[in-house]
Amino acid sequence: MNITQRLLATLSLALLALLAVGVGGLWQLRESQERFTYFNDNTLTSVRTLSDLRDTVSTMRVSLYRYALSPEASSRSEAVQDLAKADEVFDSTVATYERTDLSDETDRQLLEADRAAARQYRAERGRFLERFAANDDEGARGMLVGGSLFVAASALRTAIDKHVAYNAGLGEQVVASNGKAYGLALKVFSAVIACAFLVAGALGYSLYRRIHNSLAEIEQTLRYVSESLDLDRRASVRHEDEIGRTAVAFNQLIERVALALREVRLSTDSVSTAAHQIAAGNADLSTRTEQQAASLEQSAASMEELTVTVRQNADNAAPGQRPGGQCRRGGGAGRRGRAADGGNHGCNQHQFHSHC
What we know:
InterPro entries: Chemotax_Me-accpt_rcpt (IPR004090), HAMP_dom (IPR003660), HlyB_4HB_MCP (IPR024478), MCP_chemotaxis (IPR051310), YvaQ-like_sensor (IPR047347). The protein folds into 2 domains: 3-210; 231-299. Helix content is 90%, strand content 0%. It contains 8 helices and no strands. Helix 1 (3-69) runs antiparallel to helix 2 (73-101), helix 1 runs antiparallel to helix 5 and helix 3 packs antiparallel against helix 4. The protein is rod-shaped, with a radius of gyration of 71 Å.
């Protein structure tokens, strides 16, 4: 795996870990928001509605006690009106709960139990009012204090409390589910972050060491070659990656430079040898030229001697052109002179040819 692939793998791992944590976090956030919305819109609303039912039942009981304790007919009439309003509020609240706040079938069954207990309570309350209307105050008060009306009111209150407890239990389940999801998300995301950190850190450190060591070796080789001009030094190639290929290219460059320098050296040696040969030829030519000059000087001397001899011969021949008497007198001497001149002329010709 080369440097580019290692770098891509490291970045891809980091990005995938970031994406996983981000997407998982958003998903958990959405789930948590849904649980919170359910808890707020269903559980809390149901508990509030059932609390209103319980308050309505308390209002009914207070109105009954006021009815039983009021000696005046007007006060009792107001208490009856309050009971009627409380019944309307109770029925309206139950209808609203059934329409918007039911969670499941158990919740529906508990609501039906609330309605049944309310019907039983209203039936006992009707008998209570009939006894008061029949002037059976003691019997009516007995129903209110510990009789059937008291039991019906307690049953209604118990049904509503049971219903509230069930919805509170649903809320606790939502809270527990939210806490469980939070704990699971925390563990999963922590594991993903830790693994991504360790793997990405290991890959990054390995990539750093590989790049640092390879570049350091190339730097040392370049510095050594630049300082020592040692073209036999080569950069080490540890891996077949970008830096390794760079080192191979550098080694090839050094090899070609060394080859070019060797060729230049061979050419220089050839030129030097040719220059020495030319210098030797020049020296030989100079020697030969000097020898030719000496020969020319000797030839010039011989020519000068020949010229002198010819001149002497001419001078010697001049007296022979005098009048006949003198010639006759000097005939014998002339013949002896020519013989001598002939001998001298032959000697001069022999000397000339020997010099030449």
